[in-house]
Amino acid sequence: MKWQYQQATDAVSQNRKNLNDFEALVKANSRDMDTAWIVLCGALVFFMQAGFAMLEAGIVHPKNVTNILFKNMIDASIAAIAFWLLGYGFAFGSDSGGFIGKCGSACYFGLKDVYNGAGDGMGSSDGWEKWFFQWAFAGAAATIVAGAVCERTKLEAYFIYSVFLSTFMYPVIVHWVWGYGWLSAWGAYPDSNGVARPIFNKDTRSNGLIDFAGSGVVHMVGGFCGLVGAIIAGARRGRFGPDGSVNTLFDGNNTLQALGVFILWFGWYGFNCGSTLMISGGAANVAGKVAVNMTISAASAAITATFLAKALQGHYNISMGLNGVLAGLVGITANCAVVDPWMAFLIGFVAALILYGGHYLLLALRIDDPCDASVVHGFCGMWGIWATGIFCTDKNVQYAGYPNANEACGSGEQFGVQVVGSLVIAAWTIGMSVMLFLFIDKTIGIRVSAEVEEAGLDISEHGVAPSYEQQPQVPSRLCPRVWTFLQVH
Amino acid sequence: MKWQYQQATDAVSQNRKNLNDFEALVKANSRDMDTAWIVLCGALVFFMQAGFAMLEAGIVHPKNVTNILFKNMIDASIAAIAFWLLGYGFAFGSDSGGFIGKCGSACYFGLKDVYNGAGDGMGSSDGWEKWFFQWAFAGAAATIVAGAVCERTKLEAYFIYSVFLSTFMYPVIVHWVWGYGWLSAWGAYPDSNGVARPIFNKDTRSNGLIDFAGSGVVHMVGGFCGLVGAIIAGARRGRFGPDGSVNTLFDGNNTLQALGVFILWFGWYGFNCGSTLMISGGAANVAGKVAVNMTISAASAAITATFLAKALQGHYNISMGLNGVLAGLVGITANCAVVDPWMAFLIGFVAALILYGGHYLLLALRIDDPCDASVVHGFCGMWGIWATGIFCTDKNVQYAGYPNANEACGSGEQFGVQVVGSLVIAAWTIGMSVMLFLFIDKTIGIRVSAEVEEAGLDISEHGVAPSYEQQPQVPSRLCPRVWTFLQVH
Amino acid sequence: MKWQYQQATDAVSQNRKNLNDFEALVKANSRDMDTAWIVLCGALVFFMQAGFAMLEAGIVHPKNVTNILFKNMIDASIAAIAFWLLGYGFAFGSDSGGFIGKCGSACYFGLKDVYNGAGDGMGSSDGWEKWFFQWAFAGAAATIVAGAVCERTKLEAYFIYSVFLSTFMYPVIVHWVWGYGWLSAWGAYPDSNGVARPIFNKDTRSNGLIDFAGSGVVHMVGGFCGLVGAIIAGARRGRFGPDGSVNTLFDGNNTLQALGVFILWFGWYGFNCGSTLMISGGAANVAGKVAVNMTISAASAAITATFLAKALQGHYNISMGLNGVLAGLVGITANCAVVDPWMAFLIGFVAALILYGGHYLLLALRIDDPCDASVVHGFCGMWGIWATGIFCTDKNVQYAGYPNANEACGSGEQFGVQVVGSLVIAAWTIGMSVMLFLFIDKTIGIRVSAEVEEAGLDISEHGVAPSYEQQPQVPSRLCPRVWTFLQVH
């Protein structure tokens, strides 16, 4: 009996030992599928660079196409080097509830801790894939700016702002919102009094802004930086007549624009779904919900923008429809994980209205943003942050894995945090951008000479002829009714 | 001893408890990797929209390019809203062996049950990703039609058919074949008599049609709807001369066509491989087999079409080669999981012959389908359904996870079900499409005026100039030998 | 007590039984996620065909665009059939440490063993996905050649070399390095004396060359084959003036080039990250590291090439920048898993120097490679193999899962193996290519007639007009300073 008992006990211990082995195996599977998910989604986000390149190449005059393509190639590259050496360290380095990441218990300058195999402090993989995913986001932020300042800005100005944005300006915001800084949604964890609310948590020293995939962090930063750049650079020659008229300088290449928007829409599934940052533990459900919501918002905004253009201008306007897709996607990016499909529909609808209003607002203010980047990414990005507060429900917030356990969504507290957060992001971006572009203008000069602008940047900076002949133009696509209204009032 | 015994028993119970925890963890991993797979494949399927846009933009006259791009953007958007509100509910709602999904134990109108977290009745995830994947398919079906009716159809006609197709016409077929309706392959489960055959199962009340990824459900629906549209809209002005001659209206932009086909081929790996609907439990093996078979079929059809064109026309014809790729892919889509590679080779070979024959058949019938969409998607889609019955083996059918256990493949019973199923799908599609397009024609009119067609849809509907100058044309690419033969006989 | 004891023992056995079930389930999850990873990465690698097509279409004269697109479509197709019937069997068939795969314990001609469900001998999936992934690589190797010989080569010559390359020339190298042949990195497993070194292992009879994703296997083979083809075909008419001048025959379409490079960069994440061949067991960490390293190398090379062009030519040169991206990616491909990010930065930097030097070297030698394919893929591919030996560390090599356990990296032994291996690959490729292209030239003739070349291949071979009007040209982009230097010295 004794012997039998020992045998049984050994068998139990053996089972226990195997259980521990299998537990490790199961967790390794979770970790590895999470990592693969981020690598694949990161590649999709990177592919958005091709989308931006085609979209912008389809908007600028053929004499400036090579320049904008070149810019896209080089800002993704600059972002890689800058984000590797410094940016990622500022964004995700040690610091809780504060302003900027540093070199403490975790240090990511030059990917130091990942490289040393010291773990990443953010999960159980070694963390390589996290840099890759975040770099692709940084590159998107940098490239958005270009759409607003194109066709009259020196290439060297692009180099300088790409370096500054990827190194410092953008990573600081990332740190605040996603890197456990003072605006991190993880600030809504129950504090030592058991209170889990978005407004200041004294333990984490942070406020719980929800910006799931970056309407604020990525798009507002790119959009508002572009707005400042467009203002400081000034309008393209001939864009605004002395009599207040607005001239269409080039009709655009719709094939390239459409290709660009389809690529962006495709890559955006990596951008938003991948922002779950993992798929195990049920996060894949959230990724699925994100895909649904962003599809509905994009569709809603595209349809709204299309029929708005038809109603106001008398004919369809593919550029407005395509920008509608982007506006809908930007608007849903902050909240795709925390709203229901019918809310996504409304968010897209409003984004299209903002697109339209913003487009004419810029014209009325005589601000020249050739790609409407500040409207699509800046204004609609801010709408995305606000919409998160308007539409979120506690149930949805918890479904997405946020720690917010109290009645913050229902009570309007979350909305308050969202509004304040968006204003802070706007203030930081505008403040930094003003300094940046004034510095550029005072040193190397932001703008090319009138002769270069007239001849096109391709011939002067790249030594190549225009990409194709300009087609005979049809009368301006601006809506005369709206325009007259704006001028009269 | 007693105490020792208790200790051992406790250890056993603890092991059991942990086992249960780990079992849940393992199954959660399976569920989450399945969901991620569908999200990623769904994104690939969506990207096919870009492929269709580029392909069609490369075929239509430059004066109609903006219009076709616009149509692509808007039909994907309309499909999203229509499929969200109604289509998905009709396709996958409660109903066994019947005609259409309803609101019963499962209700998917407005994604109701997914949104309520009531489970999806189709697996263990919450089911968001299933809507996303199916929407991408619905968008593909809708966009195929456009290729057949382009260059002379009113935009408003596109809007109407997009809504109807995504809301009702397509979801009904989906319900029949994939939504446990009366043509579902799951009808081959053993009935209460232990018989597992594709012909009427009295328990599930369904017949076991095998259409793995939609040669019938997606491509035949799009292709035959397009055929009806092309006939009712009539030929483009000048396409057929009064003397029976066929005129090439535009030589095509081969760069855009090639880009479109490469994007389609790429996205098709999501379309077919993702139709495993999961990867765990060995489904990934099926996905791998699907990738192999569709590659071989596409390659076989491309090579066949290429050398056929060379033999018949005296020079190579890239459009035929590119359409060959698509024909091979459409033909393999129904059966990619249930055939061997050498069968895939033959399926592609025959698809290329059908492409060629169908192209000249339409010309002989004076039906004008500018993109050969009804040939590539409709005829080759039907071939795909038939080929499934011709080439399937019981071993392969079971490898793909179908319940078909008896000698249905060898005996020809499966082939019979495939032929009848394809005819039913064709009949439904043609019947509905005739009603649809006649309704459109009697109300708003399907066709633009002669002046608009002459000037191009871009200038009239969108207010933009042609996308590029038409190149000097070379003599018609139609094969004179075949053409003469067709006219004489 | 006895009865209680029995009960406890039964519970232990039941736990054991469930444990075994769960172990199988966990391992099935690992296998299925590995397979899904390879299918998705394989699709990304296939998409590089679209990248090559756009890149090459953006470089050749508009009169040859259709021809190059056609070639891309057909060589991917030929590679599929050839690799299915023979190539894959030569690459991965039974044979250890030898020259070529055969039909032994494993037989892959016509996918025999996979098709028979006999397992693949290389893992636990059925192995379909492995063929798919490897086919996409074979297609890439085949298509690289075309860039070097374009604009004057007969289509039939493409057909012949595609068949030969995909059937025999490329699979032999794959067998040597990746198929357990005599250059396999798995040759560094401890031999029967316990020695784990890259130089000849007497048990596996192989030498441990490290070429992670194919700088040598894929890019050198494509690049050197192209170099031989370019030499044997001779320069395009008018490329080199009788006075030694170099003429730019066409300025290029930068939009297509940029689109092509962005697509290639995107697909390359599948190419390199997927070369882990699995993600479970921590391989996902390696995939993440690969993504980081290749991003940094691409960025470093793009920036270097950009500023080098500016310094030497006086203006930016987008073609050089874009080729810089590719050079950086080719250079990192062999070693992306075994170097640190700062090494990746240096590898990209040197790759850009090689690109520049190689470009002018070919001109000085009056070798006409329109796409610089032999420089980007051949020379930078060789640099990638060498860089692996220069920068690898034992720690990194083991992190990537290579068996190399000794001080091979530090001692220079690995570097020696890399140099010898690269020379052997070059010798095989050049030897085979000389035979191949001389055979083609002696039989059907490699080159089109002067009239066809003048008129363009599109009109003569495909019966279509040039794709677009040539733009007015600006003076040659060749760098006068460097050129003068090369001519004087």
TrEMBL record, chains A, B, C:
Residues 36-463 form the Ammonium transporter AmtB-like domain. This is Ammonium transporter. It is found in: Cell membrane; Membrane. Its main location: membrane. The chain crosses the membrane at residues 36-60, 72-91, 132-150, 157-178, 212-233, 254-271, 291-312, 324-356, 420-440. Keywords: Ammonia transport, Membrane, Transmembrane, Transmembrane helix, Transport. It comes from Guillardia theta (strain CCMP2712). Belongs to the ammonia transporter channel (TC 1.A.11.2) family. The keyword Nucleotidyltransferase does not apply. It is a multi-pass membrane protein. One of its GO terms (cellular component) is plasma membrane. One of its GO terms (biological process) is ammonium homeostasis. One of its GO terms (molecular function) is ammonium channel activity. Pfam families: Ammonium_transp. The keyword S-adenosyl-L-methionine does not apply.
